[in-house]
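Continuing the batch. This is chain 6 of the set; chains 1 through 5 are on the previous pages. Same settings as before, nothing changed between runs. Recording input and output for traceability.
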Amino acid sequence: MGIRKKILLGFVAIGFILLLSGVVAIFEMTKLTDLISGLLTNNIKTITATNTIEQVVMRQNHVIYNITQDELYLHEFDYTEDTAIISKQIDFINSNITVAGEEPLANKLQTEYQTYQTFLSKVSGVMEQEREQRIAWYLTYEKSFMSLIATASEITELNQDALLDNAIKLEGNYYRMIMPAIIAIIAGVFMILFFNYFINAYFINPVVQIKESIKSFLSSRIPYNVKVKTNDEINELNEVVKDLTGLLKKKEKECSSIQNESREA
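Output for chain 6:
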């Protein structure tokens, strides 16, 4: 194999290793980033949904409490729009199960909200009763309200814990993401060192030996005797130089013989 091909092959090998490692690093980073980011996004969306439910229900509870104290507040209570909001959030929570143990809580939340709605549907009728009866009804309603809030809070806490776990996983997988890049750098360094050794051992050193041997031959007529281990252009050059120095030495002997013959004549 020629020198050019060897050098080209060396650069191709280094480039291939770096490219392959880079592609693997990018793939791993993209895959893990998408996975963790997706989980983080889902956790945040679920937390937002439960917070919305809690805010709406607590606002309703405030109005219902006022109504049980004074029927004049009855005109303020219209839960139609709130029902649409909460139903939408509950549907999202049930379709966005990403944490172990979340599905039973989501089902429980839906069941408790149906019970809570039953209480809401009776508000108008309760307002026709005496204040003491309204307060007694409110205490029963309050249990449903508190249970609904507690379940929503459980789902929030579950997703907050998952959010923290996913953030820790993302940090823990940082080394996994950069490992291919580190391997690429290490492999690249070793390949460069090996390539440097190859260039010196099979190209630069033989050329230097050839040069020094030619200088020795020209200055002191020390026989040219360089051995090249490769089978490429350097070896061809060495053989040409050997032939050239041998031819030159032969010519010198012939000239010396002619001169000696001339003197004897």
